[in-house]
From TrEMBL:
This is N-acetyltransferase domain-containing protein. Pfam families: Acetyltransf_1. Transmembrane segments: none annotated. GO terms for molecular function: acyltransferase activity, transferring groups other than amino-acyl groups. Residues 158-292 form the N-acetyltransferase domain. It comes from Thermanaerothrix daxensis.
Length: 292
């Protein structure tokens, strides 16, 4: 593969190789100047994946023209954490050069998954034989509205308290049981969620952690990033109690709105959020899968 250097008539040969930590500055430049940049919605920045494989680069001379990172985490699920391409390259050409190396690196097991946040990336994935798996929808609620009352029936007698470091192992177990395989969070991600959350809390029955939530805060709103109740304890008012405690917490901190994402076919969470006063915003993201 080669391209024309705009400053001269010289043909620059491209090279393909795995990314290494020393590529950090070159990759920063691609993320800053690249015409096409997909960053996964994540607790980590795409560059935090340097040092993990598969993470492949397309270079012309010392310049990184394109990058594709899909390290599996948790095992068996390789999200596209980064795909970026300079304006010298067509995204489809860069993808064709990089993706076979990524598949080799994955050992042809598991799935590659991607959340398309922009139409150009959705088009590319569709052309490259990814199949549409789900839609992630966004809901919004004004925090001017008061929280809901505790549910009259089915209370499990839980206590909601702030999450502590010692809780993370139990939180990981609830997460693994509550979410389908595609949406599991690894131990590392649970730890990062706890470190980055503006408010993280657990629901405890007796001495058992049966549910949890992580919420973040931006200058405009709070965002409920993850909410889960252990399947043995669902439909007893615990999700409702965790959610309304979040609403109470951010109202007390004078935050004016709360957003949340969920899957379009996650009927339990959609019913919960609607009951708590959330409305769909119409901002959807498409989730694609590639099985090899
Ligand atoms: C979504 C979830 C957190 C709900 O927690 P929960 O403790 O079971 O929910 P609650 O018992 O507090 O239910 C509160 C309300 O939510 C709705 N709801 C909860 N589960 C429901 C279900 N399976 N079907 C329909 N409505 C449901 C109901 O409106 C319910 O009120 P009601 O009991 O008066 O009808 C739980 O199902 C879960 O952990 N799911 C897996 C993880 C997940 O999808 N998280 C959210 C997406 S990020």
């Amino acid at each position: 593969m080669s391209s024309l250097n705009p400053g001269s008539a010289m043909i620059i040969e491209h090279q393909l190789r795995q990314a290494i930590p020393e590529d950090l500055a070159r990759l920063r430049q691609l993320l800053r100047d690249g015409k096409y940049v997909h960053r996964h919605l994540d607790w980590r920045s795409p560059l935090d994946w340097l040092g993990y494989q598969p993470f492949w680069l397309l270079l012309s001379g010392e310049r990184v023209e394109a990058a594709l990172a899909c390290p599996p985490d948790p095992p068996g699920v390789a999200w596209v954490r980064l795909f970026a391409c300079s304006e010298q390259e067509r995204p489809s050409d860069a993808w064709h050069a990089l993706f076979p190396h990524v598949l080799d690196g994955l050992g042809h097991t598991g799935v590659v998954a991607a959340i398309a946040l922009r139409p150009w990336f959705a088009n590319l994935l569709e052309h490259e034989h990814f199949t549409l798996h789900q839609r992630v929808v966004t809901l919004w609620r004004s925090l001017d509205l008061p929280p809901g009352e505790f549910l009259a029936s089915g209370r499990a007698g839980e206590l909601i308290r702030p999450m502590q470091l010692d809780d993370l192992e139990a939180v990981e177990q609830v997460d693994a049981r509550a979410f389908g395989w595609l949406w599991h969070n690894s131990r590392g991600d649970i730890h990062r969620s706890w470190q980055q959350a503006a408010y993280a809390s657990v629901a405890v029955v007796g001495s058992e952690i049966v549910g949890f939530q992580f919420s973040t805060l931006s200058p405009t709103n709070a965002h409920l990033a993850r909410l889960a109740v252990h399947p043995s304890w669902q439909q007893r008012g615990i999700g409702w109690a965790l959610l309304n405690d979040v609403i109470r917490y951010f109202r007390a901190h004078r935050v004016s709105q709360l957003t949340v994402n969920t899957q379009h076919d996650n009927h339990a969470s959609l019913a919960l959020y609607r009951k708590a006063g959330f409305r769909l915003t119409g901002e959807d993201y498409l989730v694609y899968l590639y099985t090899h």
